[in-house]
Amino acid sequence: MTIDNNVLRERISLLGSFLGDAISRQTDEKTVHTIERLRKGFIQQRREPNEENKQQLIDFIASLDNQTLKNVIRSFSIYFFLANLSEENYLREQRHAQRMQSEHSWEGSFRRTLLECRERNIEPAQMQELIDQLKFIPVFTAHPTEARRRTTMNMLQSLFTHSDALNNLDKNSVAYEQAKDQTAQTIDLLWSSDEVRTRKPLVYDEINNGLHYFNASLFNAIPKVYRNIKKAIIDIYPELTDYPLPAFISFGSWIGGDRDGNPFVTFETTERAVLMHADTVLRHYQVLLKKLRRQLIHSDTIVTVEPEVYAKIKNYDELDQRVFDYNLDDYSNEPYRRLLSIILTKVKATNRRIQSKGADIEAERDAYANPEALLEDLRIIRHSVNTHDTAHADGLLLDVIRLVKTCGFHLAALDIRQESSYHSEVIADIFASASNLPDYQALSELERRDWLTRLLEKPGTPLIYTDNLADKTREQLALMNSVATLRKLVGQDTFGSYVISMTNNASQLLEVLLLMRFAGLCRIDDEGQLSADLPVAPLFETIEDLKNIDKILPAVLDNPLYRGLLQNTDNTQEIMLGYSDSSKDGGIITSAWQLYSAQQTINHIAEQYGIKTRLFHGRGGSVSRGGGSTHNAIAAQPAGTLHGQIKVTEQGEVLYAKYANTDTAVFELTMGITGTLKACSSRFVVQPTELPNYEALFARLADAGEKRYRELTDHTEGFYKFYSEVTPVQEISLLNIGSRPAHRKKGLPSKTTLRAIPWVFGWSLARFTLPAWYGVGSALDSVKKDEALMKEMNKHWPFFSVFISNIEMAFTKANMNIAEAYSQLCDDEPLREKIMTAVTDEHTLTNSGLNSLLEQDSLLSNQQNLASSLQWRDAYLDPINYIQIELLKRARQADGSDSTDNIASSELNNLQVEDPLIRSINALAAGLRNTG
Fold first, then answer.
1. Residue 569 phi/psi, 5° resolution?
2. Which of 97, 145, 254, 331 could disulfide-pair with 141, CB 3.0 to 4.6 Å?
């Protein structure tokens, strides 16, 4: 896809001019002058670098008061919002144009993917089998890489619509002028409203933010995705025209279920999340049912309606009488509208029953017992409509059916996540309360497994004969009971998996199963067969844990009770792989290698034990956390490791980038689905003949990269002091970004106490982007004599080429001049010089190594569209970075003022500095796009 940057710049410039007009109207001349001086000054600095001029700009920033800096940051931040919106809209138009001009459509589209399947001789029966086993599960998570409000997101969605009109209307038309006015008014409102939160968000806010994307785009996008693949199937595989598509998309969420390190997520929070999910989807069904009632106006005096429709109305006779008590003859000749009115009443009752947690007896009487009952009623209507009006049968009615199949009453399956040691402590407390059980903490791993297995084998629900339990034990047991209750209330798909983070022993899976037993979520039948309502998914995160998968998985699979459990639940073991912590632990190359090796190990173990696996990829927005193109990343997975199903987290600002608008959401879902299709077909995933040599070389790269990375992060004294001083990591935890604390423990951060997100976020904001590339240069240099083989790998091994492409993109976002300016925030000069020398040396090695490998003179020479996008952003990012450095100085100077006389003024100054500081973080996240 070729991008005309002149057209794109023209569109961005038009929206930028509206922003400039809004700022001129609503602020003073000094603010406008300041913004323009910094904008033009840093653009000129990019074109013609001059140290004296740069220092004048930095001094000018230092002379500005906090309020002026706030306005400057807001101007650049909103500019990035508008530029991103223009870019997204332009790319959507280009995809549409390509689809109209070429029968192949764009790379990753359903049409092109199915054409490629035909070209690879995938027969219709094989294609049907591929789609039958297909399951693509995006899981939304609340991670604090931006502070955008829903109010702002709604305005940007309106702007997307207005700008689309501007781009496609005749500039001499009245409609164009109206679109201009609407766009200008919305941008005016955008400037006059607050784009960031004025308080720290609650988990409730984060749940609402996740739900926003369903109302904003996904409820419309999901049926479009099914329509698009069906059309492609009919065109390219006409033999499958009558093939009924399965519901291969489903959504998950961690928001309100992820309690690892977040004390604000309690069992009440989880309950609230589930009720909010149900309310959102059931209210949307009501809107759709009303639309259907306006559409399906067929009269049985004119068309023949199938007997099943009348039978269903008669079956609901008592409810029918109550619904139409105002006029029993209403819709008497329009049976579809009559039945839809009853269905609408039942959906309303279903929501009332759920929201009352089953207490509303009247609602209980009318409510649907489960989504399948609703689907049955809708299918009866569709079957009848299809006999006389196929257009309406395959229109909104089919869309609603597909949406109910996808979202049920639960909308998105809520995963529960908790750290492994938490469960061990709870089990130890329960053991301590029973005189017939040993000291759990004193048991060896083998002894723990033995005791847990014995307890799981006992029939009936285990009882606890004491109230003297620790608070965390009470909370855990309350959570299990709440999950059991909510599953009965909302449906079996209400919850997804129980994810155990930091899994390092087989006993940790058995611990969770035992805890489930207390709520009846796990049970054993008369034949000794164990079953569980939630699959237990180990999360392997650190380098050591990834390396130990070949010990941990067999240890649990060798347990006959656990093997029986799997056989009772589709024989599938879900396993989550953590990109974030493995990268933070050992560096980007060894993380990639260990994740690759782990998938092969898992696949080998699965074959050995005769089980299936579903891999859950814990990817973030940044490259160091597994970010990059979802389509390419999935399609490049090791051969044979995907079996039709994949779960993947959607985190941070990636959620907004992918799901803010319907067309973009359709595109992103399509790319993930087609990537999964390709990865599951042996016709696409062809092993390179030299794969053993490629893997051996990558292993050497990983060893060299890890050694270099650990020299800096593990063996450089004072490194975390440097990190905490030169990045905004200290301030991130204080700002109104996320509900979860940035550190696991208080005090100076370290590799073990720091969470992966602020680790990556801090380095990204300071323009080091260090986690995404540090160690790569040394690794490439260490195998210089094998560069010819590496170039061959890059051409023939998708896993390696995707990895290098992502590294190049992330590395290009590093800016050593800006990083050097941030490094001055470290007051220990010898430490600063030592670390910056190591960083700049590695940066130089990485730059030369990547260019040599890719046979180019400069970075992104072979990705001109991306290069252009990053290039224009840099000139607007620079002033925000230098402003942020100034604000960090002011904030820390205020914190250091500890005399009694200065306390009041210090607190006031902190408030004045914090506001522009949070805005600078938001602005940089918008400009850099994949920071966390």
1. -135, 65
2. 254
CB atoms within 10 A of CB 746: 9
Q: In sequence order, what DSSP letters do the residues of 207-276 get, joined into one string?
A: HHHHHHHIIIIIHHHHHHHHHHHHHHHHHH-GGGTTPPPP--B--EE-TTTB-TT-TT--HHHHHHHHHH
Question: How many CB atoms within 10 Å of residue 462?
Answer: 13
pLDDT at 842: 98
Q: With bands split at pLDDT 50, 70 and 90, how would you rate the model's confidence at 579?
A: confident
Q: CA-to-CA distance for 294 and 434, rounded, in angstroms?
A: 63
Question: Which one from 70, 162, 284, 584 is the annotated catalytic residue?
Answer: 584
Residue 682 pLDDT more than 80?
no
CB-side neighbour CA atoms (13 Å) of 649: 29
Q: Among the listed ranges 138-147, 199-208, 521-530, 645-654, which one has the minimum average pLDDT value?
A: 138-147
Cα torsion through 313, 318, 324, 328, rounded to 10: 80
Lowest mean pLDDT among 33-47, 331-345, 886-900: 886-900
Q: Phi/psi zone of residue 108: left (φ > 0), alpha (ψ -120 to 50 degrees), beta?
A: left
Residue 334 reports pLDDT greater than 80: yes
Cα–Cα dist 546/528, whole Å: 33
CB neighbours (10 Å) of residue 705?
Answer: 27
Confirm whether 584 is a catalytic residue: yes
Range from 59-68, 224-233, 578-587, 606-615 carrying the lowest mean pLDDT: 578-587
Structure tokens at 50: 């001059």
CB-CB contact of 396 with 288 (8 Å): yes
Residue 421 and residue 504 in contact, taking contact as beta carbons nearer than 8 Å: no
Q: What is the pLDDT of residue 53?
A: 96
Higher confidence at residue 512 or residue 876? 512
What is the three-class DSSP state of 365?
helix
Paired with 577 in beta bridges are 540, 617
Could you tell me which of 347, 487, 411, 415 has the C-alpha nearest to residue 211? Answer: 411
pLDDT tens-place string over residues 740-776:
555 555 556 677 777 777 888 899 999 999 999 999 9
- 911 pLDDT tier (thresholds 50, 70, 90): low
Residue matched to tokens 């991306």: 866
At residue 219, does pLDDT exceed 50?
yes
CB 139 within 8 Å of CB 649: yes
Tell me which of 54, 70, 143, 617 is the catalytic residue.
Answer: 143
pTM: 0.91
pLDDT at 686: 72
Distance CA 930, CA 620 (A): 8
Q: Which of 244, 109, 94, 126 is closest to 672 using CA atoms?
A: 109
Q: Is residue 472 among the annotated active site residues?
A: no
Tokens of 750: 């370290």
User: Which one, of 834, 932, 930, 926, lies nearest residue 84 by Cα?
Assistant: 926
User: Rounded CA gap, 580 and 625, in Å?
Assistant: 4
Residue 132 dihedral angles phi and psi, to the nearest 5°: -60, -35
State the burial class of residue 171 (Cβ atoms within 10 Å of its Cβ: 0-12, 13-18, 19+).
exposed
Q: Which residues pair with 416 in a beta bridge?
A: 498
Q: Quote the distance between the C-alpha of residue 514 and its chain's center.
A: 30
Half-sphere exposure of residue 881: CA atoms within 13 angstroms, side-chain side? 31
Whole-number Å distance between alpha carbons of 823 and 829: 10
Residue 105 DSSP code: -
